[in-house]
Write a structure and sequence with these properties.
- The complex is a heterodimer of chains A (about 280) and B (about 200).
- Chain A is mainly α and about 280 residues long.
- Chain A is about 75% helix and about 0% strand.
- Among the domains of chain A are: about 5-60, no CATH class; about 145-280, no CATH class.
- In chain A, helix 3 (about 25-40) packs across helix 4 (about 40-60), helix 5 runs antiparallel to helix 9 and helix 7 packs parallel to helix 10 (about 185-195).
- Chain B has helices at about 20-30, 35-55, 60-75, 85-110, 115-125, 135-145, 150-160, 165-170, 175-195.
- With about 200 residues, chain B is an all-alpha fold.
- In chain B, helix 2 (about 35-55) crosses helix 4 (about 85-110), helix 4 crosses helix 8 (about 165-170) and helix 7 (about 150-160) crosses helix 9 (about 175-195).
- The chains are: A mainly alpha (about 280), B mainly alpha (about 200).
- The interface between A and B is large, with 41 and 45 residues.
- Chain A: Keywords: Membrane, Transmembrane, Transmembrane helix.
- Chain A: One of its GO terms (biological process) is regulation of translation.
- Chain A: It holds the Pfam family zf-HC2.
- Chain A: One of its GO terms (molecular function) is sigma factor antagonist activity.
């Protein structure tokens, strides 16, 4: 037997080296490769390198996407649901010609176009004069006024007038407009109320995502902690746990313990609460 | 952690079938019970994001945009889903297509091949500049970036996301044996780049 294996010997085991490195070969082939490796430093080195690179790949930690991804998706979903509901509610369309003559149709189109143009010009002039008078008389819009407008849109009758999709949109844009350099922006409290009391779970999820962006405000961690004990929708519960864990909010441990033991919570929610506890403690 | 839930679309309260399969949920989505898509989103948005993150050389912003695109397309083309096909294979195919579209757009933006090769040269040089253990994961990503796209795809699926050869075969429309051979070649290619002197 030669001291060093020939290139042909290496060729015969080359296809087996990855499975050997992964310890997936049957015993007979394992012995055959091991016998070759005992004589071949190059193939031995290759196995060491294969194991090293495979271990590094398998050690890659999963990353968490930004919570905005969920908010955008929920908004899209609500828009599609609204479009679907509108289609279902609309009576079946039937085309019934009113003026059979093509010439009449063209005349009507031209007339409608001219009317639209004139209306546009008129509205533009009216808007300019209205803007200038408003600028002269109205007080500057401050954060409190903005919060009041937002609150009236997101609660009570205002919320009933707006679709869930519109409310999700409003929640996202409200969070983006908050001045994080100023303390106690009242919009944060409006978003907290939406998180706790909006009837639609997707709007509550969007509010949680929006608040997470404003997590530098100390009220956010407190609000998530309190909200966990009143939310009943499992999606909202799971998101809140996830956000509290991301924020390392240790004040939430009592609520997490209660949720982990809550008999009427879904098993997956209890499991998520236990995971959160394990991470925070 | 994947989230496995089911909610009643009318009330959002949990119902008896706590763990309906992906295919059952997708059938409900096809029947316009769109709330079930939120459950599928919870199950898949993280794995799909991570898949796209590794395919885009850790570009978080692009990976998030592409994940959004995947779910937009899923919603828009929900009727094209065939119940005979596995949902997981289908959604990963949507992700693969979204990534391919993005890659093509990027290629069109490149002015010359010279720029590309210069960038690759820089990546390679930085990948092998130091052997500090703390930098190994960065080197790994840079070595992955130097692989052909198909090999990077199969390594992400097999070694990072933990798909079996059978599951990869379903996604790539080949046999489990062929998936195994491709995965082995890809690992060998990565090893050669990673340990090249």
């Amino acid at each position: 037997m030669p001291d060093r294996p020939s290139p042909y010997d290496c060729f015969t085991v080359a296809d087996l080296l990855v499975d050997y490195a992964d310890q997936l070969l049957p015993p007979q082939q394992t012995e055959r490769v091991a016998a070759h490796l005992a004589q071949c430093p190059a193939c031995r080195e290759e196995v060491v390198q294969l194991r090293a690179v495979a271990q590094r790949l398998e050690a890659v930690e999963p990353a968490a996407p930004a919570p905005e991804l969920r908010t955008h998706f929920l908004q899209l979903l609500e828009q599609e649901k609204a479009a679907l509901a509108a289609t279902a509610a609309a009576p079946e369309a039937r085309v019934r010609p009113m003026w059979p003559q093509a010439a009449t149709r063209w005349a009507l189109r031209i007339a409608a176009g001219v009317a639209l143009l004139l209306t546009g010009i008129g509205l533009g002039q009216w808007n300019r004069s209205a803007d200038s008078s408003a600028a002269a008389t109205a007080p500057a819009a401050g954060p409190t006024r903005h919060a009041l407008q937002l609150a009236s849109s997101l609660s009570g009758e205002g919320a009933q007038r707006l679709s869930a999709s519109d409310r999700i949109q409003l929640v996202s844009s409200a969070a983006a407009a908050v001045d994080t350099t100023k303390a106690a922006d009242p919009v944060v409290q409006v978003l907290i109320n939406t998180l706790n009391f909006d009837p639609n779970a997707n709007v509550r999820l969007a509010a949680a995502g929006a608040l997470y962006r404003l997590r530098a405000d100390p009220r956010v961690g407190e609000a998530f902690t309190q909200s966990l004990s009143i939310q009943t929708d499992p999606n909202v519960q799971i998101l809140l746990i996830e956000l509290l864990v991301n924020m390392r909010e240790r004040r939430a441990t009592t609520q997490l313990e209660q949720l982990a033991r809550k008999p009427d919570a879904l098993p997956i929610v209890r499991q998520q609460a236990e995971y959160g506890l394990g991470t925070l403690l | 952690m994947p989230v496995l839930l089911s909610t009643n679309p009318q009330t959002s309260f949990p119902v008896a079938d706590h763990y309906p399969s992906d295919d059952v949920l997708m059938a409900r989505v096809q029947a316009n019970d769109l709330d079930q898509l939120a459950v599928l989103f919870d199950r898949y948005h993280r794995p799909i994001f991570n898949y796209l993150l590794r395919r885009t050389n850790n570009d978080r912003e692009t990976a998030e945009d592409l994940t959004q695109t995947v779910f937009e397309r899923l919603l828009k083309y929900r009727t094209s889903y065939q119940p005979s096909q596995q949902f997981r294979a289908w959604i990963y195919q949507l992700a693969r297509n979204a990534h391919a579209d993005h890659w093509q757009r990027q290629q069109q933006l490149r002015t010359t091949d010279v720029l590309d090769s210069e960038q690759r040269g820089q990546l390679g040089a930085s990948a092998f500049a130091a052997q500090d253990a703390a930098e190994h994961s960065q080197h790994l990503y840079e070595a992955l970036a130097l692989l052909p796209d198909a090999q990077r795809d199969i390594l992400v699926l097999n070694r990072i996301q933990g798909f079996s050869y059978e599951e990869i075969g379903e996604q790539l429309a080949c046999s489990a044996g062929a998936a195994r051979v491709k995965a082995h070649r890809a690992l060998q290619a990565l090893r050669a780049i990673f340990f090249a002197s």
